[in-house]
């Protein structure tokens, strides 16, 4: 798995076409400790993930963001995410409209300073999604925070 890291603590799922205009302050008003939503006037919804500087990965097949809370390695995380998919413990957070190609970036980074090695590109089918969260502990010394998009 490939992981992104941030010093700031908050990631933004920014529409690709807006990245060059991203000034690094758009998500400042987000009070969410974990997951939030901002609206870019004329550009739609932006998902924010974070609250503290944790490494993040994205599993496209299950539309799930994985934040590394504690673990020595990530060898079992994909299997743990798969096992958690059917859990009744997912917490519904809010709904969001997404669609197209996005860049997952450190929300405090100006778009003009974005390096390809510091972002993920994420393709999301056009639609309305419920954002759900779940914390998993695949072992005694491992914990990951999951945030997934579920089509509504």
Radius of gyration: 15 Å
What number of structural domains do the residues give? 1
Instruction: Give the ordered list of helices and strands.
Output: EEEEEHEEE
Q: What would you call the shape?
A: globular
DSSP summary, beta strand count: 8
**Roughly what fraction of the amino acids lie in strands?**
over 45%
Unreliable sequence segments: none
The total count of helices amounts to 1
Arithmetic mean of pLDDT? 91
User: How helix-rich are the residues, as a percent range?
Assistant: under 10%
Secondary structure category:
mainly beta
Keyword list:
152 residues, 1 helix, globular, mainly beta
In short:
This protein has 152 residues and is mainly beta. It contains 1 helix and 8 strands.
Notes on the structure:
By secondary structure, this protein is mostly beta strands. The chain has one domain. 5% of the residues lie in helices and 50% in strands. The protein has one helix and eight strands. The protein has one helix at residues 77-84, and strands spanning 10-15, 35-40, 44-50, 56-59, 64-70, 91-106, 120-139, 142-151. The chain has an eight-stranded antiparallel sheet. The longest helix has 8 residues, at 77-84. It is globular, with a radius of gyration of 15 Å.
